[in-house]
Predict the 3D structure of the following.
Amino acid sequence: MRGPAGPRTTCSLTPDRPHRSRHGDNHGPRQARWGVRAQARAAGPAAEPRRRQLQNNLTGYAFLIGAVVCFAVFSWYPMVRGIIMSFQRTRRGETTWVGWDNYERIINDPSFWTAWKNTFYFTALALILGYAVPFFVAILLNEFRHAKGYLRILVYLPVMLPPASALFLFKYYAYDPSDAGLFNAILNFFHLPTSDWMQSTTMTMPAMVIASTWMNMGAAVLIYLAALQNIPGELYEAAEIDGAGIWRRIWNVTIPQTKLILSLMAMLQIVATMQLFIEPLILANGAGTQDSATSVAYLIYQHGFFQNDLNGAAALGVIMLIVLAGFSFVYVRLTSRQD
């Protein structure tokens, strides 16, 4: 029925129902399901790389577990255990905390300062001889055009010898104090005075540096050779055109181009030589004449195994750890400033 001034109105006895399509489905739920499926299909390709990356990371972590366990068992745990032992005293199976007593006792030992003096002296000589010689040997080998592989093997051969065997070779053949010794025979040939070598208080440290350099320089030479071969040849050609001689080319081209590896090897040289142990143990029978060969590492060995003072040895080891950590910190700061 139409009213006089309004739209047509109808009466219904049933309540209002949502509009349905011919198939009887509601559009709202269907659109929601379609949206969820579209999001899943869109997220599928993006989630696949993340899943693959997670699997690769898990594989890498699985390979690292072995190295982490080895470091934890054989490096980190002994380090922490040594720090704890340095503040304890063990007598007849009973352990008590003594604070800084072990450190005071070790520092007041006269051998402590003698050992540090000898260790720093050996490190200084090793930086002069054992650090410079491999670098110049690498420069010399890099100039050869033929038989490079043979010369590299020849230089690296001493590294493959057991350190004890190489040192016994020096002790009984090269450093024989009689005229039959190799070095004394060379000195006699040039009419120079001979030496007692390991029985001399002045020649003990230089003799150990010579033996240590001969044993260990092969690896350093190969590292320097790899660095030298990365220097562009155009730099040397430009230096030659400018009239630079061999020493100017080394100073202005070779050293600046290998500055990073030189600084790294210097740090490794300091850390390695500060742990001087096997050379005095074999060549000088431990302490040497008048403690001329006593090193910090040998003093730790002496406290731990001869005096049965494991707590004092642990305290001395912690002091060495602090000193080496200080050298490493200085190296990191200097290299970071250069970068």
User: Anything to note?
Assistant: The beta strands are 88-91, 94-97. The longest strand covers residues 88-91. Residues 102 and 108 are 10 Å apart (CA to CA).
